[in-house]
Amino acid sequence: MSDLAHLLVVDDDTRLRSLLQRYLTEQGFRVTAAADAAEARAALKVVAFDLLVMDVMMPGESGLQLVDSLRREGRDVPVLMLTARGDPDDRVAGFEHGADDYLAKPFDPRELAHRVRTILRRAAPPPPTSQSGPVQLGARWFDPDRAELRGPEGTTRLTGGEAALLTALARRPGEVLSREEIAVALGTPDAGERAVDVQVTRLRRKIEPDPREPRFLHTIRHKGYVLRPGS
Predict the structure, then answer these.
(1) Alpha-carbon distance 207 to 214, whole Å?
(2) What angle do CA 192, 20, 44 make, to 5 degrees?
(3) End-to-end CA distance of the chain
């Protein structure tokens, strides 16, 4: 899929933007570049990008504000955030706003390409498997083979991270998954426990009647999380 994927690189640093565009093109991606959030929005109106590579700090609307706005609009395009600030709180803030992954500057371009491919693989529909079928979550059903959550209102939009999380849990219903296992399933093994907790919180908002009193996605103290399907 990566050979055909169309990326949108958003960064106000002209030199870095040009370098990223050239390098990712050499890696087999189609690449469009934007200097700020306004240019990115204009591009998003006419192209269905496979992934956004976006700087956090930009003049005007920041990268965090843009990805948060896209998620509130129901846009589930995967987003890899770039930032000069790489401490855990900054990574968690990125995930809270809806980013799928987070890479601190300076970075090795090879790691960027690896992260992009990992996100694209995670966002792609998983191959069919006979190990598990759809699971019921109240009035909704989640099909892990299609990474699709459907209910009376139709399909619920999931970000790549939310879909990967729910798929990992749905393939092992009733089994406790540690935060480390979940981080690996999300493709972000170095993101830390808080980042996993953030993704769980976001997912609960979409599958639970009352996210404060979970019926399906339960926290197991000192162990991790478990999905318990039911009507």
Answers:
(1) 9
(2) 85
(3) 37
How is residue 144 written in tokens?
């892990």
- Domain of 170, in residue numbers: 135-227
Find the helix or strand (DSSP H, E) in which 19 lies: helix 14-26
Question: 114 with 195, same domain?
Answer: no
The answer to whether the predicted template modeling score (pTM) of the entire model surpasses 0.70 is: no
Work out the burial of residue 209: count CB atoms within 10 Å of its CB; fewer than 13 is exposed, 13-18 middle, 19 or more buried. exposed
Reading the block at residue 148, the tokens are 């699709």
Residue 128 inside a domain? The answer is no
Q: DSSP characters for 157-202?
A: P--HHHHHHHHHHHTSTT--B-HHHHHHHHT-TTS-HHHHHHHHHH
Q: Looking at residue 96, which CATH number applies to its domain?
A: 3.40.50.2300
Give the chain's mean pLDDT: 88
- The total domain count for the chain is 2
Has residue 1 been placed in a domain?
Answer: no
| Strand partners for 102 | 81
pLDDT surpasses 60 at 130: no
